[in-house]
Structure formats: structure tokens, C-alpha cells
Request: fold
Amino acid sequence: MEKIGFIGLGLMGKPMSLNLVKAGYSLVVHSRSQGPVDELVAAGAVAARTPKEVAEESDIVITVLPDSPDVEKVVLGENGLVAGFSAGDLFIDMSTIEPKVTLEIHSALSEIGVDAIDAPVSGGDIGAQQGILSIMVGASESAFSRALPLFEVMGKNIVRIGEAGAGQTTKACNQILVAQTIQGVAEAMTLAKKCGIDLTKVRNALLGGFAQSRILEVHGQKIIDRNFEPGFKTELHRKDLNIVLQTARALGVSLPGTALVAENMNALIAQGLGKKDNSALALLCEQLSNI
Amino acid sequence: MEKIGFIGLGLMGKPMSLNLVKAGYSLVVHSRSQGPVDELVAAGAVAARTPKEVAEESDIVITVLPDSPDVEKVVLGENGLVAGFSAGDLFIDMSTIEPKVTLEIHSALSEIGVDAIDAPVSGGDIGAQQGILSIMVGASESAFSRALPLFEVMGKNIVRIGEAGAGQTTKACNQILVAQTIQGVAEAMTLAKKCGIDLTKVRNALLGGFAQSRILEVHGQKIIDRNFEPGFKTELHRKDLNIVLQTARALGVSLPGTALVAENMNALIAQGLGKKDNSALALLCEQLSNI
Reply:
């Protein structure tokens, strides 16, 4: 069994790495905060002090980090993975970052004989805990085959979209769609609320027709319950939409609906609501309409 | 068994009325075009020359018409239903119209002892043919009980949301959500296309996660197939969004995402694409991005 390094033990990374330990893998872990590291060590993992050390001790290294600069630093920075990797090792980035940065890292690692995979996920912390994440993979076929047993521990709907970068592009598409669907649910619920009709009945009626979506199911219920605890923080979704809009701009693609939702998220963040769930878009709709 | 009048035998009304005939109801029908009337007569229905005549011959009258003025004319206009109804009759409007007009009609009919129900639907022509429409009902409890056996022939997810008008408000919520979800699918597919990745794999990956929706399933596939035949015409969806935005404006509700999609539909109509399916929003995204 290959030895696995795991860097980034946050809301997503911690349950994902715990599932690997439970599946019998030997893990070497590293994270900014000590708490999750201690939890993983208690579960049977070994702690390493730097990404370099993680790479030295592992055959395959997985990262689950917040943003593009974090991944860049962990891989290419001082005491980074690149200093510890040996030819034949495999790097799997499951963070959501810019496709451009993914390709830069891919190219830097291929020079030292290390294959790189981009495999961002969807499904939230609950999907991570239950090992049922949706995983969107950009990889060569051989690298994908090697990583697949690990993906099958962490996820359920695992699709190899294409070569390096294709996973990040697909995640960008995912965030476009999720953003606009939540905005739609938020506007629908706001109109229903203003009309004084029963929001639960509206949600149920809409779930039975063409408007059905997992987001209406989950975020619709959160809005009804006035429960805006994450879930997925608005500031993280806005970060993802920045990636989307930067990528689109570089490619010459216009995304007016996505830009509008990103602006609404900017407003929520400006009001100190960035740590609330992205369903807090409903709060902004209510505020705009003086409800 | 009560005698049923049915007015409006278009893309939706024809299969809905045929299902009632098949279920054993006696139908009196009326429509602008002769073709569908002949089809219904061949199936066992009786044709009437005016809405007034339909009301005279029926206990319950159902309308499935394109827009608010059509319903207003059929009910309150010359030789309208109101001239043929008797006290104790029931009126069921399954069109998508302004909640304000619904309430006007409700009030005019209640003066002559006729109960009125608003029961717009979702699920498209396929849902109408298969008798699996989602039906959103605004009605008194007694009127709802009387109409329920008919709804059960035409639909599957039948929810009484509240009193008169609540059905139309819920349909407005439905159209808000459907519009923005299609715009999201269109933008996601446009970005994926520009990146040159496999759209079918993107759709499959997204269907397995939080971005799952019936619209990604159906409209995503239509966009992949470059099949923009309706389905639901852009010009009819734009009409519904006009109702939504007028209603919202009257209530003092701001719906920025909905307004953006309505404008995109205006552009499609300006370009002569109003009779294409609403998934043609993808064509506009491509045009904006010069793809």
C-alpha cells in the first residue's frame, strides 16, 4: 500500500484524511493549526513539520487548501513539496484554485518526474464526512488509475474530465451553477415571504417540478429555518467566483449572471456576513426589498 | 360525474384535456385553432362556439391560456364564461398569469356564486402528456377538494399553497428559479466549451454534486445536443418573467438576478430567437463571448 501525505486539515481536509486513515492507509499529515493534527495523530497518522518532510515520507501527497497562493507556497515555496519529492511520486491537489496555477505546478513537477492531478470536490463538509464527495479530475489516464483507490475512499461520483487543469475548470463550472441557483432560490423565497405564503409549501411544490435542485432542497430549507451557519462560507464561495471570473476574463468569456452573484457576495462580506453560509444571499434580497 | 369545460388547447392544454377524456370525463371544449378542437372531438369531447356556451354546458371550467389578457377576455369579455356560469359552478385557471388579475377574476366570480381556483403548472409539455405535472394551487379548502380528482388526472405533485392567488405567486417563484438555473447552466457550459473540455463529462460530474438540478439534466443535455427546439419557448418564459417583475415591483421586491435573465431573453427575442427553447440562453452566452 502506498504511503500517503496529506496537507490541509480544515473543514474538508480533516474528514477526508480521517476517511483514508479508517480505510487503512498510512498517513503523514501537516496543517497550519495544531488541533486537527493532534486529532489525526490520535487516529493513527504521523505528523510532519514541513511540506518537504511530508513529501520525503510519502509516495502520494494530497493537498486540500483554501486558495491558489496557499497551494503555490506549499508546493513551490521554502521547504515545499518540490524539495522533498522523488521521481515517480504523485501529487494530488483537491483544493479549488485557478486552472492557470494548476498548470504552472503541473509543469514544475513534471520537470522532476512527478505527476500532478487536479481533483477539486463538491459536496460540502457533510459529503467529506460521509465519503460521498463528487470529485472532478484532471489527470493523465495512468495517474488517474493510481489515484482512483484513494478517490473511492473520499468520494462517490468520480469523473475524469480530461488532462491536467480540466478538474479545476469543471469546478469553476460547478461554482457558476451553484451560485446562480442559490441566488434564484433566495429571490424566490423573498417574493414568497413578501406575499405572506407558506415557504415550506412553496419549497415542496417547486421540488416536484422543473425547478427541482439539490440546492432548493438544502439551501431552501436553510433559508426557511433562518439557519445561515455554514455549510459553505460566503467568503469562500466569493473566492471561488473570483477564480471563475479571472479565468473567464483571461479566456475572453462573459459571465454576467455569475458576476452579479459575486457582487451580491461582496455586499454580504462588506456587511460582515462573509462567514455566514452562502444561502445568506437571501438576507441581501430581503435587505434590498426592505423586508 | 361532473361535466367539465376546457378552454385553450395549446401545447399544454391539449394533452391535459386529452388525459381528462381518457379518464372518462365528459368534456366541452373551445379553442382559437380548429385543429386541436377536431382532435378532442375525435377523442369524444363536444365542441362549443364560445366560452359562454362552455360555461352553460359545464359544472367546472378549466382554462389553459397564454397570458393575463387572454384569461380576462375569456372570463369577463363578450360571450365570456361569466355570462354562462350558474351559482355553484367552479372555475379553475391553470394558466400562468398575474396574481393581481387572478384576484380580480376571483372577486368578479364570487359575486355570482362561482368559486375560483388558480392552479398554474410546471413540468412542460412532456409533463402534460404523461399526466405528471406539478400543480401549485391557490383555493379555499372546499374548492380544492372538489378539484382534486381532476388535478390527479393531470398531475402528480399537487400542493395547495394557500387561498386564491397563492398558486400564481408560487408559479412566479418557480419561474424565478428556473430562469436563473438555466442561466447558470448556460454560463457553465459556455466556459467549459471555451476551455475545450468534454461537456458531457462536465454535466455528469456536476449532476453528482451540489449543482444537481433537473434543469442541468434536461437543459444541459439540450445545450450539449445543440437542440434548441421547445420545450418551453423563450418568449413565453419572458412573458412569465414580465409577470414576476411586475408583481415584484408592485409589492416592492427587488429581483436583480431575475431581471438580468429577463434582459437576456429580451435580447434573444430581439434576434428572432424567441420561439427557441429557453435553453437558447446558452446561444446568447456564446455570442457575448464571441464563441
Summary: The mean pLDDT of chain B is 97.
